[in-house]
């Protein structure tokens, strides 16, 4: 988690209590906003917030994002960024509010649903976490990540049936996403369907060949190589 889709420097990522993946969201969004128009005064405040966030100064970062919202209250990523600061500071209810504002303005911010769910769990409200993740799948029916997030939640609660179902939906929704097949494979293997799991590991590798961990897992599970990957689709 983090003001995601940002590529922070390595040392800045290590200081953040949130994850590398969330940090990724902020930077990508920042680049996209620059394209929208440099005349928008909110951009400089967003950039100032990003810089402060990378430095681990979440209070100053929050102030920057608040100024960005003041100048342009219709940009979802600004609320996402402010939510990341609130989450880092420990203001979980405020973080949830801002994540919800972000998804109202930009329903495609899949990470916002996940981060809101994390806050709900930390506040002892798993039912609201589930609702947030389900909202994410409804808003993003063709995004594997949304279903993967839901599947991991179910697995964390010991609900392997719904975890497997959610991962299967990730594959159906986003079959060209290597993560969809990889995560479905893991749940299949953990629930005893080894052969089908290996099949989806191979599919993940076909889509993204450089995955050392997946390659090693395939070798461990099928050292003889008897289970061949499915043939690639021929295109005309």
Structure in words:
This protein has helices at 10-15, 20-36, 42-54, 58-71, 76-89, 92-105, 110-122, 126-139, 144-156, 160-173, 178-190, 194-207, 212-221; one strand at residues 4-5. The chain has 13 helices and 1 strand; from the N terminus they run E-H-H-H-H-H-H-H-H-H-H-H-H-H.
Salient structural properties:
236 residues, mainly alpha, Serine Threonine Protein Phosphatase 5, Tetratricopeptide repeat, 2 domains, 13 helices, 72% helix, elongated
Which helices and strands, and how do they pair?
Layout: E1 4-5, H1 10-15, H2 20-36, H3 42-54, H4 58-71, H5 76-89, H6 92-105, H7 110-122, H8 126-139, H9 144-156, H10 160-173, H11 178-190, H12 194-207, H13 212-221
Q: Write down the overall mean pLDDT.
A: 87
Helices and strands: which structural class? Answer: mainly alpha
Radius of gyration: 20 Å
- The CATH topology of the largest domain comes to Serine Threonine Protein Phosphatase 5, Tetratricopeptide repeat
How many domains? The number is 2
According to DSSP, the number of beta strands is 1
- Output the number of helix runs: 13
- Largest sheet data: none
H-E order: EHHHHHHHHHHHHH
Beta-strand content estimate: under 5%
Approximately how much helix is present in the residues? over 70%
Measured distance between first and last alpha carbons: 41 Å
CATH homology-level superfamily of the largest domain: Tetratricopeptide repeat domain
3D shape: elongated
Name given to the CATH architecture of the largest domain: Alpha Horseshoe
Low-confidence stretches: 4-17
CATH class label of the largest domain: Mainly Alpha
């Amino acid at each position: 988690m983090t003001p995601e889709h940002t590529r922070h420097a390595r040392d800045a990522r290590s200081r953040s209590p949130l994850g590398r993946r969330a940090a990724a969201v902020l930077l990508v969004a920042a680049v996209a906003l620059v394209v929208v128009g440099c005349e928008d005064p909110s951009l400089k405040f967003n950039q100032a917030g990003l810089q402060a966030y990378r430095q681990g100064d979440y209070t100053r970062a929050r102030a920057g994002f608040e100024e960005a919202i003041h100048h342009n209250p219709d940009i979802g990523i600004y609320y996402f960024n402010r939510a990341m600061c609130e989450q880092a500071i420990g203001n979980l209810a405020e973080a949830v509010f801002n994540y919800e504002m972000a998804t109202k303005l930009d329903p495609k911010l899949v990470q916002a649903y996940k981060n809101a769910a994390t806050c709900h769990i930390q506040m002892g409200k798993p039912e609201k976490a589930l609702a947030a993740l389900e909202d994410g799948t409804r808003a993003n029916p063709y995004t594997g990540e949304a279903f993967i997030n839901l599947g991991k939640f179910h697995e964390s609660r010991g609900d392997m049936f719904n975890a497997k179902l959610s991962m299967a939906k990730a594959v159906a929704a986003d079959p060209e996403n290597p993560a969809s097949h990889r995560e479905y494979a893991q749940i299949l293997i953990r629930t005893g369907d080894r052969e089908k799991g290996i099949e989806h590991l191979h599919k993940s590798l076909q889509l993204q060949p450089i995955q050392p961990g997946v390659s090693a897992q395939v070798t461990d599970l099928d050292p003889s190589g008897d289970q061949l990957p499915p043939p690639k689709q021929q295109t005309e």
